[in-house]
Amino acid sequence: MERVNQSVVSEFVFLGLTNSWSIQLLLFVFSSMFFVASMMGNSLIVFTVASDPHLHSPMYFLLANLSFIDLGVSSVSSPKMLYDLFRKHKVISFTGCVTQIFFIHVIGGVEMVLLIAMAFDRYVAICKPLHYLTIMSPRTCILFSVTAWVVGLMHSLIQLAFVVNLPFCGPNVLDSFYCDLPRFIKLACIDTNQLEFMVTVNSGFISVGSFFILIISYIVIIISVQKHSSGGSSKALSTLSAHITVVFLFFGPLIFFYTWPSPSTHLDKFLAIFDAVITPFLNPIIYTFRNQEMKVAMKRVCRQLVSYRKTS
Ligand SMILES: *[C@@H]1O[C@H](CO)[C@@H](O)[C@H](O)[C@H]1NC(C)=O
Known about the structure:
The chain has helices spanning 2-6, 21-51, 58-84, 94-127, 132-135, 138-163, 181-186, 193-228, 233-259, 267-289, 292-311, and strands spanning 11-14, 90-93, 173-174. It is globular. It has a single domain, classed as Rhodopsin 7-helix transmembrane proteins (Rhopdopsin 7-helix transmembrane proteins, Up-down Bundle), CATH 1.20.1070. The protein is built from 11 helices and 3 strands; from the N terminus they run αβααβαααβααααα. With 312 residues, the chain is mainly alpha-helical. Bound molecules: 2-acetamido-2-deoxy-beta-D-glucopyranose. 2-acetamido-2-deoxy-beta-D-glucopyranose (NAG) is lined by residues 46, 49, 61, 64-65, 68, 141-142, 145.
């Protein structure tokens, strides 16, 4: 009851990305293309891995988990952004805003743990090939996916616990196209320095930490690829460089949001488009379409779908 009395803010207003009509049109066209493509690509991966027994191995299970979470990444802020792009008055309810923050952080946490699990999987496959099946047992895989969800949920709930009861007394304009903590906190009518510090420590630490874990694991993998193999190393290197590209594209913007002291530039809004729209589209491309086994399986699934449609 107390919060209702304190908070007169029941909705937030987004300023959106830009007022220029031509940039809006450009954003609309590109974002909706990326949105549709990543929803289709990631659903196809989840479906293919689930339905093809050839792909019932740790690497593909993790990939399917990543695609599943990427469906969430695509859905959490882009549909609302697309819907709002041409509207003058872009509003989101208080509950909608908090829900968005909740899911952004669950999904972000899950995605980070899964990326680390996938790097670990490649490390074991390349550096300890004889022990691959014992180390990456079905139990390990399930452990990784459970850990990912537990970490994501905990990370998000801890931060929400700090902010859900904040008093909002009037200011409700967010210079953004989605709700997230750095700007949300700034609107509260108390001194928020400590809260901002908490967000920097929590979200900043988890993103910088995972980023370094990933970079170090890829460096270790690359070094051992070069030491051990001669023939297959260029193929492995090209795969690894693709993974590393994803890591930079995904973490670059995040680290910028959560560790930069004041979210006042326009740069972070445009960087946010990367994580909202482009990374969920890139993941299937980078992890899948360069992979022969996966391409064959996808063709098989598509053929089955087509012939199923014809006969029914
Ligand atoms: C995620 O990984 C687990 C463990 O390997 C697997 O059982 C599950 O089917 C995967 N989930 C999806 C959506 O592919």
